[in-house]
Dihydropteroate synthase (Glaciihabitans tibetensis), 268 residues
Amino acid sequence: MSRPVILGILNVTPDSFSDGGRWVDPAAATAHALELVRQGADVIDIGGESTRPGAERVPAEQELARVLPIVRELAGSGIRLSIDTMNASTAGACAEAGAEFINDVSGGLADPDMYAVVAGSGVRYIAMHWREHSATMQAAPLYTEVVSEVRAELGERIAGAIAAGIEPARLIVDPGLGFSKTADHNWQLLAGLPELVGLGFPVLVGASRKGFLADFAAGGTAPAERDDATATISALSAQAGAWGVRVHNVAATRRALAVWDRWDEARA
Ligand code: PMM
């Protein structure tokens, strides 16, 4: 497949910035995941703890109680799953229940047991660039040269993961747009995607509906108004060599990637 993998977002949280509270009921969550797959999602990324700026932490047991029934149900239907968690205990239980990816926004910094659990489970690991927890992460994001610093810090996460026994072929990296970053930092990281691709690992891009896209909203101020801008970024990320995109509106990104794919095919 030449186009990037599409991870469809399913937040089973009461407080995520764009879809908080909508999919808390397991039946509604499962139905939404099936709809995202119908629209073209390759993988469903399930999160049980909000990481929006200012969010407080959720106990790991509560996070697991939110996601595990949905993981079991969807894995039973043969759907490929990613679990958005910073907790090794949640990662381990979900891997056992059939998840294929662990998506750790802290890149292993939040839980010292994460790398060992992933190493032992055989799942793929998405290491996102992160500096601190959501409660304080937007206080004063500081970089001299954001692309080279994010690249170097992701390199450190990769080295730590490999040292803990995770095979390199199982690793994916993510620049962590909006996590301890200003809008300018996000744009510089998008423009610098080829440099991150140059690390030699698949790169995932998570721009969907984030605040830095508010200037390009279709109409009002609701996060969903940023879906056109998100789909545009999906196509540009494909062009820059991204492995995958993590989005709320799968249908819009799927259409944008189909256009990109046709364009790319004509070049071959
Ligand atoms: N962003 C959010 C949550 N999880 N995971 C990865 N790998 N990359 C991201 O950019 C990312 C993430 C925050 O957004 P949400 O509230 O829409 O889930």
About this structure: The chain has one domain: 5-267. The chain is about 40% helix and 15% strand.
